[in-house]
Amino acid sequence: MRRGRASLVFEHPPVIEAAASVAGKKEGEGPLRGRFDLVAEDDRMGKKTWEEAESAMQEAACRLALKKGGLERGQIQYLFAGDLLGQLIATSFGVADLEIPLFGLYGACSTIGEALCLGAMTVAAGYGERVLTVSSSHFATAEKQFRFPLGYGNQRPWSSTWTVTGSGAFVLASEEAAEEKSGPAGEKRGFPEPGQGGKPGGRAVISAVTVGKIADMGVKDSMNMGAAMAPAAYSTISRNFMDLGVGAEAYDRIITGDLGRVGSQALMDFMRAGGRDLSAVHMDCGLEIYDCAAQDTHAGGSGCGCSAVTLAASILGKVESGEWRRVLFVPTGALLSTVSFNEGRTIPGIAHGVVIEHRGPGERRG
Amino acid sequence: MRRGRASLVFEHPPVIEAAASVAGKKEGEGPLRGRFDLVAEDDRMGKKTWEEAESAMQEAACRLALKKGGLERGQIQYLFAGDLLGQLIATSFGVADLEIPLFGLYGACSTIGEALCLGAMTVAAGYGERVLTVSSSHFATAEKQFRFPLGYGNQRPWSSTWTVTGSGAFVLASEEAAEEKSGPAGEKRGFPEPGQGGKPGGRAVISAVTVGKIADMGVKDSMNMGAAMAPAAYSTISRNFMDLGVGAEAYDRIITGDLGRVGSQALMDFMRAGGRDLSAVHMDCGLEIYDCAAQDTHAGGSGCGCSAVTLAASILGKVESGEWRRVLFVPTGALLSTVSFNEGRTIPGIAHGVVIEHRGPGERRG
């Protein structure tokens, strides 16, 4: 294990052994339609409250990831989980029945990044053969908590993003455990999913992580979260380049979480000012998940679920198939709270970087 | 490293190299008076809002811990931090200026336990020579968020606890880094503090951790958090005994976070029903920090700060001096949210166990 100031490079990269995505109705009608493991028929998931619905999505994502990996919950050592709601209630009520020792995490929309960092660190250290990571968000619970009652029907500025309804879950396993389960090249698994291209037998591993710092450039507009988060994305991507001694060309894609249109532009500008051009490799989950014009989502998607479901439903398959050899996945979070917002404070941001690499048959410990 | 289902026993136990406690006025007048590193003259800490005050306490605790350890913030690889407030705003605004890569954690009042678990795992794995862990709570921010406006002057039932105003921070270091800094027996440090008894030269190490699961026995009374948390404490302590193959006699003290009078009694009853008697070794930080009758705090203290400041101000010195050889520190959290509470849901609990042991001069890798 080699380490830079904020980054760790794993000698034995944990394998992303299984993943599952649960999406809301709107997300299921967007550009990633057909790729999700489960699309809610209605966003209440048959529950009485939006919060219960979000919990149900988180639980469903976890159970689906276990099922897809052919695993029982007793095979999972630890669970790393979080959501956007105060006191993480989507998580508390969502994962309780799994009865797995839990680390509750809060990194706003960067939470799945934080969970993958800590989960990979835990597996790579040999603390457990397998851990589970999950995050979720829900348009209705987030609007209720952070903005206006849905019935109020307020207008949204073009810079605003639309909170993704959905949850993504990932099982991380040691190479040994994954090989024992599904053969040296993963050939016993079903990946890649039909329609995702590439050859079967590949795996995605987490080869390095770059843990983010809080970045705050004074943005106070809760309807422009992209601007609030762009400095954090800039900080983490730059730190990743520095710690690993690489540049943008080292990655097939650099994938931010939910900067949306405004934040992505700001990130490009920051990077260019720092002498780096990301435009050839940058993509943003918030711009992948919706057809913004047709679906009326303005600057793009956001929320803890945005990057998580996009990773599970789309990115991962491309890495497993080898279409992309190496990506830098950077979920971005705006640490917005109504209390601090109403007290006139800024919206600090944070972003965590996860290097996800392809391993083909025979390519072990590359 | 040996591991049980939820526990890890470290081959190279990280050292608690430095600790600091910042307390509010009321806490500074309680049984631990004179033991805190800083007592606020007023609980606003000179700030405009209670939330800013809590952030200031968290930052002060971090800076004091670094100072007491003779360390610069650049020597800290990662920060594990959290608080009770929605979106962890005490943390976001408290630690931003430290510019240390941050893992935001939420475990309600168990947060310092979660932070010490993850911090110890990180150091023991060799991911960093030093990490910092911190948590905070504030009576006024918590009442505002979870209960009634202070000005309303509502009556409190006897089962209610009083949220501790304060923050505790801990530097965890590898044995090698700690020895290099302060000599093989820690003799270059000032510990133990005057008046804490024992001989100088000892250290406290984290030898094992037991990560908690969510425990929910259906308690819905937000004025009786002790009852909500007792099942979680029971679950984690029992699991620790099982995983490590020990009983209550293995510990000089088993120290819960903030069960208070009601929750402590419930824990004793649960344990007795399971054939274990903890009464000889149990103590609760919530009952240590206040003189409940004289200070009108009813069932005791609570909050993320409760167990953190008690560990820093009182427990740690007794372990370092060798007065206690081995304690099981079990911060307890009630995952209460006003949203779920108002929707009629229960209050789930969680507790994380941290085994803290004395290492005397020459006792390395015991």
Features:
homodimer; 366 residues; seven-stranded mixed β-sheet; alpha/beta; 12 helices; 21% strand; six-stranded mixed β-sheet
- Identify the biggest protein-protein contact and residues per side: A-B, 58 and 58 residues
Question: What would you report as the Rg of chain A, rounded to the nearest angstrom?
Answer: 19 Å
The beta-strand count of chain A equals: 17
Which residue ranges of chain A are poorly predicted, with pLDDT under 50 across at least 5 consecutive positions? 190-199
Category from helices, strands and their pairing of chain A: alpha/beta
Taken from the alpha-carbon principal axes, the silhouette of chain A is globular
Count of runs of 4 or more consecutive helical residues of chain A: 12
